[in-house]
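Sharing a chain and its predicted structure for anyone who wants a worked example. Both blocks are below, sequence first, tokens second.
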Amino acid sequence: MQRDLQERRRAALMDELRKAEGKALSVREVMQRGNIHAGQRTEVKRMLRDLAREGLLLRDGKRFSLAGAKPAAAERGGRRPGRPGDGAGPGRLAPSARGKGLAGAAGRAARTGGVLGTLKKHRDGFGFVARIDRKGEDVFVPPHEAARALDGDLVRLEIVPARGGRTAGKIVEVVERRRRLLVGTYHARGKQSFVVPADAELEGYVPVAETAAARDGEVVKVALDPESPELRGEVVEAIGRPGEPRVEVLKVAYARGFADVFPEPVQAEAVETPDHVRSEDWRGRRDLTALPLVTIDGEDARDFDDAVHVERLPSRKGKPMYRLVVAIADVAHYVRAGTALDQEAFRRGTSVYFPMQVLPMLPERLSNGICSLNPEVDRLCMVADMVVDGRGEAQTAEVYEAVMRSAARCTYTEVARVLAGERVPGRERFRESFELMAELQDKLTAMRRRRGSIDFDLPEAKIVLGDDGQVAAIERRPRNRAHRIVEEFMLAANEAVARWFGARDLSTIYRVHGLPDEEKLQAFLDLAAAHGFEVPELPADPRALNVLLEKLHGHAQQRALNQLLLRAMMQAVYSPENIGHYGLAAEHYLHFTSPIRRYPDLVVHRLLKEEWARRQGRQVRGTPGEALEEMAALASERERAAMEAEREIASFYAALFMQDKVGETFDGVVAAVVDFGAFVELKRWMVEGLVKVEDLPGDFELDVVQHALVDAAGGRAIRVGDEVKVLVAAASPVRRRIDFVLAGAEAMAVAAEGARGKRRRGAPGERRPAEVAVATPEAAGARGPARGRGSLAEALQRRAGGKAPRRAEAGGRRAGAQPRGGKQQAGGRRAQGGAKARGGKQGGGGKGRRRGR
């Protein structure tokens, strides 16, 4: 019922714009025509923006018109939509660094005293530039300057004085036009055909040539002209209808500079790459083809960049010894510095994983072919060959080039089943090897624990898609013994290679993790102490934090405290300066194990080869330190962009999944509290939604010390870990939001306690118990999205010819509101979902890890 009501409201707005016969109307004009109360302006604006994003309306600045309608006579001026100066597009853009590209951009910024960063535009015209070097706050860019670049562009700024004694950014050049493609709705108008971008940040129209590749009203992919000082492009293909999952995935990916296609020069180099190991490729390499290395990946994996082998060595002083061999695909042999393949990999920085597809860093001919350690074929590899003692300590480590032949392509499930005692067809011959791997994994895990490595082990969500591409479930991602084995082996290899560089005082790109934020860490310790735990003094040693985390296991507040500690941690980044890795308690750490999907790993492989060549007396053009610094900064920025894209699409799928469940009730657990409400995770699925504070009967405020929403007068508190029953009030895939309200007896209990408190206070004008809105499935359809006089529910219901709900039932803030400036995503406060398709591997520290290690 709720969804039907929203559709009727949208239809009423569309009807008013249809009556305008192509004339673009302001929000105020739409409201006047629809006899809508002025207090509902914010919601009308939101609905109009949503309709524009879906391609149903055209947006020209702050005015809206019906897509497909002919322009009104007063508006037909002969100028083509999107031409600079007509208010329909961004006008002339700042000069781009043609021919200069990314190389040296940081150096140019440093020499000129400028700032290099990524522009993020606000819908009101201004923007902020996030500094690539992360050495300072984001720089404000006023509207007239922000209009000279596209959202997501990498720009070089000059800091100039601004009003009020402040400073602002002036765009000197667009270092890289990150957005090469966009998604929008095609409107066939002959020579004046155009595309309306689906992104709110790209207002106006994009002129395109008329095409037979799409029909009027279809959503299309547009390749932008990188040489044009104006926003214009060419239709590539039709990709679906507004709101479809593939459309949303590409829209989000393109907005952050990623792409699902490779430029022609890159594809040409990929085709020319050999598809087998040639005789000349063996030169200078060890032969490991007889060593029974195996790959262990997910069932859907298609690219295999690591293989492992463990063997028992003769004991020393009665203690066990092991040989651990980690072989990694030698991508650097095929992707040479300065080539089109390399430049594109540098530009992307990382592969991006969505539930329905992967946007790879390298073309599939390489990532799934010659660079993939496929079974029973020769492959070039880079090897970390370690000797580990019974305490999990690496005694020696060699790093070298080799040729290998994978003995088997195993899956996590198969290995876990063998270790559990099952007989798995085709895997019995590896039973002893798998058991030895598990034995060594125990030693490595124990060593890291002694050292103080912090392991939150927070659950991750997996979005399960059905055959029709729709969300079938959102469930906890499985993590079995095989995952832990591979993870520990990758961590060991990354550390071994980092120590190799450190011992020789050689430059490289490290993966570093700084000390936690002391203020946030103290908040975590204070809350833990309030629950009776003994806590360490600041500065806290990671070993002491790990001991505390183990004590929290099974406690009602375990999740809240884990999340609080996680927020206190700094984000791991790439840097040529080694400051260590706090979370892993590692003095030396880098990324070596995933060169197919992470550019820093590829650079590390190149640096190893450069050093080996120097030792052999060959002339080598080394990688300068300035270049490493720039590579590290841009790789960190691209990683953050990928994480944001994955989170946003996970939020989209979560809201899409819950859309047909509006009005239903579910059991949930309070996962977090903030000043604007409580996030609740459903028990049945790993989906979070927000219960807004204004929908809680009573006067709830955030207690920052106890991390609870407290109604002091009513004697009621909502804490993390509380079990509640919630009703799904709204789910908007377009806005990536899910809203809950407390349901049934739970809401009645809160209402009764809140009302008793108000009677005790005797505050004039407060609602009486009978006026408290309580969510029930029966009332869900009648619940309007706005509170106050002359609600939008009533006004639009009248326009749609339906019966308006009673005010008492329609009470409550509009669905999906963001009170008190807080942001919410449907998937929750962090990434919910982000399931990997086609074998994509998450990970920072090791394969299968979350991004960020």
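Comments welcome. Confidence is low (pLDDT under 50) at residues 71-90, 751-846.
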